Amino acid sequence: MIVVSDTSPITNLAAIGQLDLLQKLYTRIIIPVAVYNEMVSVDKLVPGAIEVKTLPWIETQAVTDLQQVSIIRESQENIDLGEAEAITLALKLKADLLLMDERRGRTVAIGYGLQVTGLLGVLVQAKGNNLIQSVKPLVDQLIEQADFRVSDQLYKTILEIAGE
Length: 164
Hints:
Elements lengths: L2 E3 L1 H9 L4 H7 L2 E4 H8 L8 H6 L3 E4 L4 H10 L5 H13 L3 E3 L3 H9 L4 E2 L1 H10 L7 H10 L6 H10 L3
Parallel strand pairs: 1-4, 2-3, 4-5
Helix pairs in contact: 3-6, 5-6
């Protein structure tokens, strides 16, 4: 299974000590260079930065189709470089799944025919695979510790999907 990730799923899972869920669910994760740089080339320590540098199951791959990256960035407002590279890399690799939380990026990726899930979808899948017992405490941790934003409606929907 080929899984490409944007920054948010990695940093947020690392912030609550659950980054290993990605390896347990997908074996390996591929990130574009822009995502790597968003995590390691900044002045402050970002959750997951050390892990993307050291864990062998998180692979960084350069995007070669810079024209595609430009098209994605120019055609949609507020698509950052990491999101555009993640979408482009997922297309190039014919990824089975793209991990992305930002709504605009997800909309663009879906428009290109990519299968997309976000961090909350990862948690629901982890529960379905018996890797975690409950989604709610982890979502609460994400909100409190990682400043992860979830609307009240989405919060309720995710808990219903998870059977909680």
